[in-house]
Amino acid sequence: MKPTEQKKFTKGIVDTLRTRGTYDKAVDDVLIDNLIFNLVLIENAKKDIVHRGQMVDIGKNNEFFQINFSVSIFHNAVKSVNAILKQLGLEKMRVEVDPRDTTLNQLNEIITR
Question: Structural domain boundaries of the chain?
Fold first, then answer.
């Protein structure tokens, strides 16, 4: 996620929370920063999984496969995103996303409405 996208994303969330009257700068700014961090982790982990696959060969002389660490990073980041959205009171907004297309741009469009 580019810095300009991060600013737009942050502004959209803050505006949504202000509209609802639930924005608390001290608490929510930290949660929003963590949300963006985890979305970037998801984006990078997905790229790595697509590039290297779910299983990676870590053997030097013999083939020895193990689960790509990006799979665990992806799953943990998704859990964190869900928890943060719930803490921000935005978990209901996820329902509007087509589950087959979970791009960051679509999430950004929903939050900035």
Answer: 3-94
